[in-house]
Input
Amino acid sequence: MVPVISKIWVFYMLLWTSKLAILRLVKAAPQVPCYFIFGDSLVDNGNNNAIASVARANYMPYGIDFPGGPTGRFCNGKTTADIIAQLLGFNDFIHPYTNASDQDLLRGVNFASAAAGIRDETGQQLGGRISMNGQVRNYQTAVNRVVNILGDENTAADHLSKCIYSVGMGSNDYLNNYFMPLYYSSSRQYTPEQFANVLIQQYSQQLRSLYNYGARKVAVIGVGQIGCSPNELAQNSPNGQTCVEKINSANRMFNDKLISLVDDFNNNLQGAKFIYINAYGIFDDMLKNPSANGFKVTNRGCCGVGRNNGQITCLPLQTPCPNRKEYIFWDAFHPTEAANVIIARRSYSVASPSDAHPIDIRRLAQL
Output
């Protein structure tokens, strides 16, 4: 005969095991069924690997801190999109579109491409890339596949309306277009104000195309402080410390117009739930209060060549800095995983009211 205490112990063990199983099930269910990502090298996770382009990062030391090593991410580890996917409850990282299966498409894919811009010519001096127009076309193709997988347009539309979309474009239109007068004529054609208007007009059409193909919950990520990147500090800062204001000023103009665009969509597109993520402000806070965020180095790349480690980006098999968590920048242009964690967390759940408008990604997922 089994003693009563043993029976009680067995009962509680079974109860505890059941609770663990339930917790695992809860954890396995993400807050949204799918997450689609559009952007440039800040979130590219391998789409450029098979493209004839200088803008590739599928070699060490890129990915030195990423599970499995280099993937094509322009970072030592995870990008903001990777971290947002984790915060949304996805167990795996979102796959690049270039090798996506049908099952991948149903949970969302990453269309981002390094060197891509809102304008088709942006980044052309670096070779191949998938511009925002190209990413929109790839998304439209993906939606047609989703319709085939799910059986009809209404089911597909319902599925897509629950997904989170993040779109972060515009950086290269400044970095690899407007502020590169030797290659591009845009700075001679337009004042910064006019160029921001031209970009917003084109971006508006691209975002509207996503809406027309089922996107409803869209996080539009503003342009960061390009004038504070090690590359710009190396080229245009007299002391290698002071950010380049003419570039940052142009970035702010674009961002201000982006906020207005988000409001316009929410007011005039039925069922639209667009939000603006203030990457510029979040970055500004990290630069002004580095120690509060665990950083010691704000103006140099952890890996790179020349002044500020920013004149040439991280070379194959180059030895990066060992204390990567203390650096905001991984290379001449891109943040470290440590910086990406802060940007992603504040995008997902605001630390300051100015981090997102009108709501953050966490609340967007709940709508």
User: Anything to note?
Assistant: The first strand starts at residue 35 and ends at 39. The chain has 13 helices and nine strands. Confidence is low (pLDDT under 50) at residues 1-15, 17-26.
